[in-house]
Design goal:
Blueprint: E1 2-3, E2 24-26, E3 38-40, H1 47-62, E4 67-70, E5 81-84, E6 87-93, E7 102-107, E8 111-117, H2 124-134, H3 143-169, H4 196-209
Parallel strand pairs: 3-8, 4-6
Antiparallel strand pairs: 1-2, 2-3, 4-7, 5-6, 7-8
Length: 217
């Protein structure tokens, strides 16, 4: 499922990434547990500001979120706690124990969930692929593995575009429809005509030199 909520952008959030909607994709309810429960595409690396909009959607779905953990590799500042909608969410971090592209959320009433964190500046096409892959209930890839695959697909796409640009710059073009190709005018061979008088003269001369031979029975 994809959850979208409208809210005023937090004052702390980077204005470059401000938007009235939350970018979140979750695995279908009741699906078999996978390595990931979905993907979250924040608009900045301000964890405190971004958690406000995230918990606004997840609290009604999963129960009150009470704790969040991240890997600090991609988060410049990791606050110890964040006040969200009337309750406190404690924030912790792990290095080797947690995937650097993953966000772990816990609810003391329900359980825990793992979300792939799509980097804020990810191109839209790659982000859409990552969010779909992370919310696939049959998915078996980790967050980092999905990021590697998305980078590989993006590199292939860039290579294809570069090759097409070179082809175009060198005068290459797609084959046109046969009907649009210029026609080559047909050339009809003109055979020399032998004048009738010349032909008759040649026949008379040939008859003169060949003696008549009667056909036997």
């Amino acid at each position: 499922m994809t959850a979208t909520i409208s809210h005023p952008p937090p004052a702390e959030a980077d204005a470059r990434f401000s938007s009235p909607s939350l970018r979140l994709s979750l695995a279908p309810v009741g699906s078999v547990p996978a390595l990931l429960d979905g993907a979250w595409w924040p608009r900045s690396r301000d964890l405190g500001a971004e958690l406000l909009s995230l918990t606004a959607v997840l609290d009604p779905l999963w129960g009150r979120i009470t704790r969040v953990t991240v890997n600090p590799v991609h988060w410049p500042v990791v606050p110890r706690k964040v006040l969200v909608h009337g309750h406190v969410v404690k924030v912790g971090w792990f290095l080797s124990e947690q995937d650097p592209h993953e966000l772990l959320l816990l609810s003391y009433r329900t359980g825990r969930w793992n979300l792939l964190v799509v980097p804020p500046r990810t191109p839209a096409v790659s982000a859409a692929w990552l969010m779909a892959a992370a919310s696939d209930p049959l998915g078996t890839s980790t967050a980092s593995r999905l990021m590697e695959e998305a980078a590989r697909l993006r590199a292939l796409s860039d290579t294809d575009r570069a090759g097409q640009a070179v082809w175009d710059s060198e005068g290459g073009h797609e084959a046109r429809d046969p009907a649009e190709r210029p026609r080559i005018p047909a050339v009809t061979a003109v055979r020399p005509r032998i004048p009738a008088v010349t032909a008759l003269t040649a026949l008379t001369a040939l008859t003169a030199v060949m003696p008549y031979q009667p056909m036997g029975r």
